[in-house]
Amino acid sequence: MVPEPEPGRTLAVVGGGWAGIAAAVRAVEQGWRTTLFETAAQLGGRARRVEVDGLALDNGQHILIGAYARTLDLMRTVGSEVDTVLARLPFVLRYPDGRGLALPSGPPALAFVRAMLAARGWSAHDRLRLAAQALRWALAGFRCDPQLSAAQLSARLPAAVREDLIEPLCVAALNTPAAQASAAVLLRVLHDALFGAAGASDLLLPRRTLSELLPEPAARWLTAHGAALHLGTRVRALERDGARWRVDGRPFDAVVLACTPPEAARLAGPSAPTWAAAAADFDYEPIVTVYLRCAGARLAEPMMALRTGAEAPAQFAFDHGAIGATPGVFAFVVSGARSWVERGLAATAAAVTAQARQAFGAAAWPGGLTLVRVLAEKRATFRCTPGLVRPRCEIAPGLSAAGDYVEGPYPATLEGAVRCGEEALRHLAR
User: Fold this and answer.
1) Are residues 277 and 392 in the same domain?
2) Cα dihedral sign for 66, 307, 369, 337?
3) Helix intervals (H) in 64-175
4) Which of 201, 231, 248 marks a domain boundary?
5) Are 130 and 228 in a shared domain?
6) 286: phi > 0 → left, psi -120 to 50 → alpha, else beta; which?
7) Which of 3, 29, 44, 320 has its CA 20 to 30 A from that of 310?
């Protein structure tokens, strides 16, 4: 039961991505009179639907995992049918040549051990070394020196394990190559996904567009519960007004900045220059998604890992038809894509198409591959590097920040965004 908004308890949420949605929904539940401002014409931020020649695609391929408890709870709150819009599958990290591992059902830690023992392409020595290292991580509480890179953390592991497991997990979860990725953050992901509760490691692949998972049901829920949504509206100014704040001249008791770090820095700068400087001081990694089409084609798994190289940019391939989405559509994901963005999207699409033919063989694509669209998020995530200092959630009294870049245990993920959105409300309630 959502309480009636309290008189005089007003909140502005600036930004309608997944963090802003989380902040707005939880604020309404807590009785705030909530107004959400979003620059784009739709909610969702970097995880939303785009229309391409009548075909509904996403602005980038995203996945969830069973450990994303806050995200799943938020989806259920706004009426999203989680079991309908998401396909829950065991965690499988397999390559076209058959190498890799697959986690069976059951408690994740036990499932990981069983998957490791059955991993294809690894020697007994490889498995033993990984088991010993995983035990050391567990005994250390999945903590390490914050200055360590993922490559340094895994340096004693066999090359096959680093290549088949550590590197793809780094680029998938942190969007940062192992050599530059934070070992501490990677360990947190490994702990929650592989050593958490039952089902934590499961892959949750969208059967519907990202907008249908959360942004669209959230918009309906917020409107039905009295929140005001101002889409296509960029906030120009944020000013302190005694104990209150003015958003483009409109008074609010509190404000959550759930916009991009540069926008948050611009708005918070006059009132909190130190915080704004930290928010503006990020290095970013792009993600490119190449959508290809081939009628009648199917991959061996809904999600498959790929070998990368100088002319093979994609790390993962997704078969939309295999998860109940659009048959014959395949998403190839290039994480840490800075060098490929510099080479140009046309060159990236051509390289990915050639990589798909080579990795799976020409016979896998009857009738050939057709390019649907190549989409790039140039600031998809911050570079999750060792020792990175992220800005705090609390900016000033009555002013909080929400976003996957804000200080927290997770990298730039949907779960990280949702958690930060909810945390922003807790700061305001203090």
Assistant:
1) yes
2) positive
3) 69-77, 82-85, 108-118, 124-139, 150-153, 159-161, 167-173
4) 201
5) no
6) beta
7) 320
Q: What is the DSSP letter of 49?
A: E
The parent domain of residue 108 ranges over 91-201
| Cα 406 to Cα 342: distance, rounded to the nearest angstrom | 27
pLDDT digits (tens, 9 = 90+) for 97-141: 999 988 887 777 788 888 888 888 999 999 999 999 999 999 999
Q: Give the C-alpha separation, 245 to 241, whole Å.
A: 5
pLDDT tens, position by position, 328-343:
999 999 999 999 999 9
Q: 122 and 50: one domain?
A: no
- In one-letter notation, the amino acid at residue 396 is A
pLDDT band of 8, cuts 50, 70, 90: low
Sign of CA dihedral 115, 117, 118, 120: positive
End-to-end CA distance of the chain: 23
Tell whether 375 is covered by a domain.
Answer: yes
| Total domains in the fold of the chain | 3
Residue 416 and residue 19: Cα distance in Å, rounded?
Answer: 8
CATH at residue 269? 3.50.50.60
Question: Nearest-5° angle of CA 40, CA 324, CA 171?
Answer: 60
User: What's the maximum distance between 2 C-alpha atoms anywhere in the chain?
Assistant: 69
Residues 67/193, Cβ–Cβ less than 8 Å: yes
- 110 and 177 inside one domain: yes
* Span 221-262, pLDDT tens digits: 999 999 999 999 999 999 999 999 999 999 999 999 999 999
Q: Is 415 exposed, middle or buried (0-12, 13-18, 19+ CB in 10 A)?
A: buried
Nearest to 258 by CA among 430, 390, 423: 423
Same domain, 109 and 181: yes
Give the span between the Cα atoms of 122 and 93, in whole angstroms. 14
DSSP string for 347-367: HHHHHHHHHHHHHH-GGGSTT
5, part of any domain: no
pTM of the predicted structure, to 2 decimals = 0.94
Q: Helix 69-77 to helix 215-224 angle, to the nearest 10 degrees? A: 50
Same domain for 107 and 195?
Answer: yes
Residue holding tokens 């020649």? 53
